[in-house]
Amino acid sequence: MHVVLAGGGTAGHIEPALALADALRRQDPTVGITALGTEKGLETRLVPERGYELALIPAVPLPRKPTPELITVPGRLRGTIKAAEQILERTKADVVVGFGGYVALPGYLAAKRLGVPIVVHEANARPGLANKIGSRYAAAVAVSTPDSKLRDARYIGIPLRRSIATLDRAAMRPEARAAFGLDQNLPTLLVSGGSQGARRLNEVIATVAPRLQRSGIQILHAVGPKNELPYAENMPGMPQYLPVPYLDRMDLAYAAADMMLCRAGAMTVAELSAVGLPAAYVPLPIGNGEQRLNAQPVVKHGGGLLVDDAELTAEWVLGSVLPVLTDPHRLYAMSRAAAEFGRRDADDLLVGMVYEAVAARRAR
Fold first, then answer.
1. 232 is in an annotated binding site
2. 163 marked ligand binding residue
3. Rounded to whole angstroms, how far apart are CA atoms 351 and 25?
4. Identical fold between 2-160+344-363 and 163-341
5. 11 marked as binding residue
6. CA pair distance 348, 22, nearest whole angstrom
7. Which pLDDT tens digit goes with each residue over 6-46?
8. CATH topology of domain 2-160+344-363
């Protein structure tokens, strides 16, 4: 069997695709896997690093909403669809699995032309244009949230890295806190605005950190590699405030933490829910509002808090986050609620859907 993955551009598209690739190889080491990508996407680094073939096609940016520019898309897509067709024919693809992004729509349309079955995975609560179109032709559609609007979709969660999907936070906590030089017994707040950081989160936490420390809270804060590290004066006998540029071991960070303050990207929500780490979600205030939709289901389930970016202040942190961190019973209840909502097996469930799509085609 040969599987072509179409999900380039951002880590939110690439990481679930690679998690599926890993799951496919665990089940059958002989399966062929090729990832479609463009020369400007993160996949040019991430896919080869994980040992998978990358095949490049021209990039055709898609508008997220219906605009006059949409009329020009079919003409601009012709060349990239042809390039995708050639890759499907060369690899003798049995199925195309798409995750959205620039390369997904050419992959879907090329597969439709060649009669190759399509499986769509949508990570966000509000699907993008590529997956809206691809879902019309798909043999199967998988989604990350029970509130998805895609028709005939199966709720499975998001395929996650094994280091996250199999994480036992309680068992790894001593090792994780030792790795960061944190106290083993103090409540710990993890703060991160994603791989590049978030200025709003950084400013608020830098302001409120001393008051949290005086309340017995230690803080691990990933500020983003291009952002200036805030000055941190840790007084003897006080809990630590530890700002770092970047966290390359999120499994250790999750294990060290009791709660997280973060944005609400689909991957972040899925990872925190899977490992049972309660969070205060601060949706990105730009875009189409999808981050709020991503976080709402787990928050409704009791596994997190939700605050608008404009309402994130030092006072809100002290009034909403601090009471959770200092209440072990509430922390436990929120952690349990997050874990009950989270899905750790989305990679294996998606593998099953891929095999079903291939089997259905072969049975015709």
1. no
2. no
3. 10
4. yes
5. yes
6. 10
7. 987 788 889 999 999 999 999 999 999 999 999 888 899 99
8. Rossmann fold (3.40.50)
